[in-house]
Design goal:
With 343 residues, the protein is α+β, with helices and mostly antiparallel strands. The chain has 2 domains: 4-228, P-loop containing nucleotide triphosphate hydrolases (Rossmann fold); 237-335, OB fold (Dihydrolipoamide Acetyltransferase, E2P), CATH 2.40.50.140. Helix content is 27%, strand content 31%. Helix 2 packs parallel to helix 4. The longest helix has 18 residues, at 166-183. The relative contact order is 0.12. The model has no long low-confidence stretch (mean pLDDT 94). The structure holds adenosine-5'-diphosphate (ADP) and magnesium ion. Residues 13, 18, 36, 38-44 line the site of adenosine-5'-diphosphate.
């Protein structure tokens, strides 16, 4: 097993620079998640690490080994894709063993490695089936099994659960977490689903437009986002970020230092509903969405815009009603004109 180091990694397609100088150190055994909006370069970065794409500049090391010039099959990485990419005319057992067969591994050893991976993934009863005879979740497990039998140092996953329905995604997410615990390998996992990122990651890497915006544990990114982009990308429903100008007096009077502050961020779960005029802010409920455990309120705060507010419990504020909102000053995130966190 091994960690991974990226130094000044760049990747261009023709004249278009897609990865713009990425530096990143991943410890051996870490579960690292790349998140970011569609098109920000997550898949490209993963493919460069895997060797499926050449890099345009910089260094990639797996453990101590410089792998820039090492071909994909010799890097000791295995990749699992969103499209399972199974051979339709091969059984589960043959699909899982295919890579080993190509590498001329002895049939007896292939059989035992496939059986071991199948046991890990609870696929023992399906070894004789063809992909068309499997559910989506089972197919994705076969794809993961194929990665396991190749005994890689590092697993790379590119949105492996995106094709599954919501319930199965939650189930497979837990299976992947359990797999990481059992195998202990370094895993890099790409997703645009920030719940997946939060639940799976030791470390999240937030990418935007080919650059790293922030690296940190889920708790660090949630509690102390470096900038307004990360603040709004991590957390669901997303953080309210509003211009400070219309709220200056109210925020000052509640003890918030606004030196150099251009915008403030407040998470929906940190805003509490009070009686009208008793909160720090007053707003009008434009929409109240009951979710069972609580309600998601869309509250129009005078001049400041619409705020999302998570109201816990069975009572929901009614649409059209005036309410008050309060927040602990310590839960207010402050950003300067460039969107950079202050404090
Ligand atoms: P993500 O996985 O974050 O959605 P990608 O890494 O797939 O993003 O793509 C990043 C950018 O690189 C996109 O603008 C995409 O159009 C471009 N891109 C990806 N692959 C190629 C390619 N083979 N040729 C040209 N442009 C590409
Ligand atoms: Mg992608």
């Amino acid at each position: 097993m091994a960690g991974l180091t990226l130094r000044n990694v760049t990747k261009s397609f023709g004249k278009v620079r897609v990865i713009k100088s990425v530096d990143l150190a991943i410890d051996d055994g870490d579960f690292v998640v790349f998140v970011g909006p569609s098109g920000c370069g997550k898949s490209t970065l993963l493919r460069v690490i895997s060797g499926l794409e050449d890099l345009s500049g910089g260094e990639i090391r797996i453990g101590e080994r410089l792998v820039n010039e090492v071909q994909a099959a010799k890097r000791g990485v295995a990749m699992v894709f969103q499209s399972y990419a199974l051979y339709p005319h091969l059984t589960v057992e043959q699909n899982m063993g295919f890579g080993l067969k190509v590498r001329k591994i002895r049939p007896a050893e292939i059989k035992s490695r496939v059986a071991e991976a199948a046991a890990t993934l609870k696929l023992d009863d399906y070894l004789g089936r063809y992909p068309r005879e499997l559910s989506g979740g089972q197919r994705q497990r076969v794809a993961i099994g194929r990665a396991i039998v190749s005994a890689p140092e590092i697993f790379l996953f590119d949105e492996p659960l995106s094709n599954l329905d919501a319930e199965l995604r939650v189930h497979m997410r837990a299976e992947i977490a359990a797999l990481h615990q059992r195998l202990g390998n370094t895993m890099i996992y790409v997703t645009h689903d920030q719940i997946e990122a939060m639940t799976l990651a030791d470390k999240i890497v937030v990418l935007r437009d080919g650059r790293i915006e922030q690296v940190g544990s889920p708790r660090e990114l949630y509690a102390r986002p470096n900038n307004a982009f990360v603040a709004q990308f991590i957390g669901s429903p997303k953080m309210n970020v509003a211009d400070v100008a219309p709220m200056t007096e109210i925020l000052r009077s509640s003890g918030c230092d606004l030196t150099g502050v251009a915008s403030v961020g407040m998470r929906p779960e940190h805003l509490a509903v009070t009686a009208p005029r008793e909160g720090t802010f007053t707003g009008m409920v434009a929409l109240s969405e009951y979710t069972g455990a609580g309600s998601l309120l869309h509250v129009e705060v005078e001049q400041a815009g619409t705020f999302l507010v998570l109201q816990n419990g069975p009572e929901s504020a009614e649409t059209g009603k005036e309410i008050g909102l309060t927040i602990e000053p310590g839960n207010i995130h402050r950003f300067n004109a460039e969107g950079i966190r202050l404090d």
